[in-house]
Amino acid sequence: MNLSLGSLYAWSIFVAPLEREFGWTRADTSWIFTIAVFVFGTSFVIAGRLQDKLGPFKVSVIGSIGLSLGFILASFTNSLEWIFFTFGGIMGAGNGFGYATSIPVLSKWFPDRRGLAVGLAVAGLGSGSAIQAFIGPPMLTGLGWRGTFLWLGIGFFIATIIGAFLLKNPPAGWKPEGWTPAPPTAKVVATTYDYSPSEMVRTPQFALMWISYCLGVSAGLMTISQLIPFARSAGLPATAATLTLLIGAIGNAGGRIFSGWLSDTIGRLQTLRLMILISAIGMFVLANTSSIGVIFLLFVVYYCYGTQLSVFPSTTADFFGTNNLGVNYGWVFTAWGVAGIVGPMITGYMFRTYKNYNTAFETAGILAVVAFICIMKAKQPDLRTAEGRA
Known about the structure:
Layout: H1 2-5, H2 15-22, H3 26-54, H4 56-74, H5 80-109, H6 114-166, H7 197-201, H8 204-225, H9 227-233, H10 238-266, H11 268-286, H12 291-320, H13 325-354, H14 358-377, H15 383-389
């Protein structure tokens, strides 16, 4: 399911064909991605609430239909407003509903290895663009962008429906055989109290996590929304620029898996702090690098971005419990939706103003520094207080 949902990350392969046919500007095509990300992030809250009440299957089916229908209807695009509605709105909502199911399910099945389990699941989202790096260019050449939208939509429907049938929650009270919760002195400790959404949003931890998440992933989303055009502007030939999708996908998926595992070992906050700091440094360097260095730096930026999409869900589960994780992480995930506006808008504006991406990436580096400061101030809620309220 997540491999199909990850198609959003390959959006940049459609930028040039759409701009050529309709004469749209870079800011116009950036808005398509921006709307999709914003709807993805905000619909996650509704989907998370439904997932907590109805279970993962029904919500996954809605996501499957929305994802595929958004792609199929986008193939009939004749105006900017239409693709805003279809790819940005319908497809974005399909992503939100599909993505809202796997994280709570995996968090409940694997409390002993939550970081790694969630990381493996959401790595599919990061790997989706790797598939399109191979199949996208030949499809665009042979079918055009309309045919590519159409056939991707059909393929995604088949794949996500299969995924929906495989998702189910564990029995109530289930835990792995022989596993006991970690003591309070351990590096990774999960609360025994399940916060309601209203309780969670009133904690200082939520505010710090939200700001850090929003500003931290803005750097990655700025790069993702303009990946191929940026690679070309950095001096890479067309073939190498397209292959940056593969490089980015490997970094994105790798960050989700290995940082998920790392967070089980050294702690959630320690992992986030390390990777957000590296991301900040990487954005400043990316703004002033040669075409050769672009490939390595893109891997680093995507890796740090993938880390956040993997470790923030596990952190939310550890801090606020799993019974309401669908809607609770939905509220945390709205930070990603807002970042979907902030990041691409900055990129589009800076490119239109300065005719390059340097200032945009330097701005992203500053945002990542603020994110690092916020996550440095965050700490787990008092476990004794939470247990006392249970």
